[in-house]
Design brief:
The complex is a heterodimer of chains A (299) and B (303). Chain A is mainly α. Chain A has helices at 29-52, 57-60, 72-81, 86-118, 124-136, 143-152, 159-166, 170-183, 186-194, 199-210, 212-228, 231-236, 245-256, 262-283. Chain B: This is Multiple sugar transport system permease protein.
Chain lengths: 299, 303
């Protein structure tokens, strides 16, 4: 049987209320209250960081939690001046790791997923089982062995030491295999072959465009995973000019223990660091329709 | 099966080359190297000074026995076990309830609530720990202020008896939204006629959710549980970030933190390698065992 639920449905209008459930159904105050409580719980720390980043160092610990102040721009310019704008370098590093890593990982996954979905070849089930083992034992657990191995070849403390391990995503390969099986008809591949297109050419010209919606999801998945990753760069990198923002900010927090004035920078930095990702989320919300069970619902 | 006629070409291998190369270098090789290191140790001859006085020799299973009998290893495993028992049910329970509430469509706040609850997924675990870490400090916490007003002394969230729950709360906060979206997507793909008849017969929303919707999205629940379990076993960022704010989190608070400490603080890469191998094996056994336990057909290869 074909895959019954395609993991993304970006063609559907995003964020609209379900048409099927709006037929004269009464609204329920209980449902509304529970959902609002959930929303309040999730928004509370975000609201706090918005407020706290406007406080001066002395106000941070002494005024009421949600009482805003007027020092946001002072805090930002203090953060700007910290070691010649090191903070912005961290942000750029995060963007580099996540952007380049996710793009490369998506391409690698698309190629492998396509091969697993559309070709018969010797060793196919072995490769597929490898991918599954990779899903079940995520690489982060191996960060220390990865470090020890890369140290042997002198590659630690470079951009590559974080970028290269981020490029392999077994789960991305698994998703791409589902996308390729569901969205690329064999007839289309046949037709491309009849027209004289080689395997690579049909992959680039035909397969990639057909898988586009799924690839955006894999890209976003991997982008967030790399942006949020802490352990790998924390272990691999020693030079703070190479840090992503997660490692940089946790280092600043450590300094706060001896220089409490750093705390306002930590809070302001935390606020600024979530802005790009929140924007990315709200802008691309329609692509977040991941169905993890997609691989399982086929009898 | 869905295969093209081009069976004999080398194309699939070329398409797989980058993935297999990266897989080999960054997943297979590290685990093999860790396996090798875990069986080695340094032999110090003489006073251990000068070149050649320190040589690496085979150690048998010595590193494993040392790792498993380390007085700090078992507590860290139990701690992560307790942490998982709190996080996985709470997070998935919340995610399921929120997804069902959204799917029932009985409220006008669903777009707002869905976006708000999903938002923490955009916040890295380190930043989330940082924000909650400050909110846990008695001088910042709004809860302490409120309880003070009514004359109750709030417990210190970062004290040794509460810190596990405080770390768990961060994970629940960060993970609920993503799982909610996954379950909500699955709920939305249920054909309406499957429960419309039950509704006409007078079944309540709760009965429909329990009897029809939850069984149908079973596969999605299995997958979210699996990924939550795996994420639990690698908890590292949250306790590491909270450490500067609390003296109740030791350097071996979780197994991965112990690996880090052994490798970089004690420079005992052999013990770190042995513990890494143990964690990787345990993760595989637990995740694979979970799939077997629920008899899931997840990851079936035919499509």
């Amino acid at each position: 049987m074909a895959v019954t639920t395609v993991p993304v449905a970006p063609a559907q209008a995003p964020a609209t209320v379900a048409p099927r459930v709006q037929r004269n159904r009464r609204t329920s105050p209980t449902a509304t209250i529970l959902l609002l409580l959930g929303a309040a719980y999730c928004l509370m720390p975000v609201l706090w960081v918005l407020v706290a980043s406007t406080k001066s160092a002395s106000e941070l610990f002494n005024t009421f939690t949600f009482m805003p102040s007027t020092h946001l721009f002072d805090n930002i310019s203090f953060l700007n001046s910290y070691r010649d704008g090191l903070y912005w370098r961290w942000m750029a590093n995060s963007a580099l790791f996540a952007g380049v890593g996710a793009a490369a990982s998506t391409l690698v996954s698309a190629m492998a997923g396509f091969a697993l979905a559309k070709y018969d070849f010797r060793g196919k089930s072995f490769v597929f089982n490898l991918v599954l083992a990779g899903v079940l034992v995520p690489a982060v657990i191996l960060a220390v062995p990865q470090y020890l191995l890369l140290a042997k070849v002198g590659m630690t403390n470079t951009y590559w030491s974080v970028l290269l391990p981020s490029m392999i995503s077994p789960y991305g390969i698994y998703l791409c295999r589902i996308f390729a099986a569901a969205t690329v008809p064999n007839e289309v591949l046949e037709a491309a072959r009849m027209d004289g297109a080689g395997d690579w050419r049909s992959f680039v010209r035909v397969v990639l465009p057909m898988m586009r919606a799924g690839l955006v999801t894999v890209f976003l998945f991997q982008f967030v995973a790399i942006w949020n990753n802490y352990m790998l760069p924390f272990i691999m990198l020693g030079d703070d000019k190479l840090f992503p923002v997660t490692v940089g900010l946790s280092g600043l927090l450590n300094q706060g223990a001896t220089q409490p004035a750093m705390y306002t920078s930590v809070v302001t930095g935390a606020l600024l660091s979530v802005v790009p990702l929140v924007a990315l989320f709200l802008g691309l919300q329609r692509y977040w329709r991941v169905d993890l069970g997609a691989g399982a619902v086929k009898a | 099966m869905t295969t093209t006629a081009r069976r004999k070409s080398g194309a699939p291998y070329l398409f797989l080359t980058p993935a297999l190369l990266l897989f080999g270098l960054f997943l297979a090789a590290p685990i093999l190297y860790a396996g090798y290191l875990s069986l080695r140790r340094v032999k110090v001859s003489g006073l251990g000074l000068g070149a050649g006085s320190r040589t690496e020799i085979w150690a048998g299973l010595e590193n494993y026995t040392r790792s498993l009998t380390d007085p700090e290893f078992l507590p860290s495993v139990l701690r992560v076990g307790a942490y998982g028992l709190i996080v996985v049910p709470c997070m998935l329970g919340l995610a399921l309830v929120m997804a069902l509430l959204l799917d029932a469509g009985r409220t006008r706040v669903s777009t707002f609530a869905r976006t708000a609850i999903f938002l923490p997924y955009a916040v890295p675990a380190v930043i989330a720990s940082l924000l909650w870490g400050f909110l846990y400090l008695p001088r910042v916490s709004p809860i302490v202020d409120v309880l003070d007003k009514v004359g109750i002394t709030a417990p210190d969230a970062l004290s040794s008896s509460w810190v596990l729950y405080s770390v768990a709360n961060i994970a629940i906060w960060g993970g609920t939204g993503f799982n909610m979206i996954v379950l909500y997507t699955a709920l939305r793909s249920i054909p309406t006629d499957l429960f419309e008849a039950a509704r006409i017969d007078g079944a309540s929303d709760i009965a429909i959710a329990l009897r029809i919707k939850i069984p149908i999205i079973g596969p999605s629940l299995v997958m979210t549980t699996l990924f939550s379990l795996i994420a639990t076993l690698q908890v590292f960022a949250e306790p590491m970030t909270l450490r500067p704010l609390s003296n109740t989190i030791s350097t071996t608070w979780t197994p991965l933190m112990k690996v880090y400490r052994d490798a970089f603080v004690r420079n005992d890469i052999y013990a770190a390698a042995a513990t890494s191998v143990i964690i990787a094996l345990a993760t595989f056994v637990i995740s694979y065992g979970f799939l077997k336990l629920v008899g899931s057909r997840a990851f079936s290869q035919e499509s």
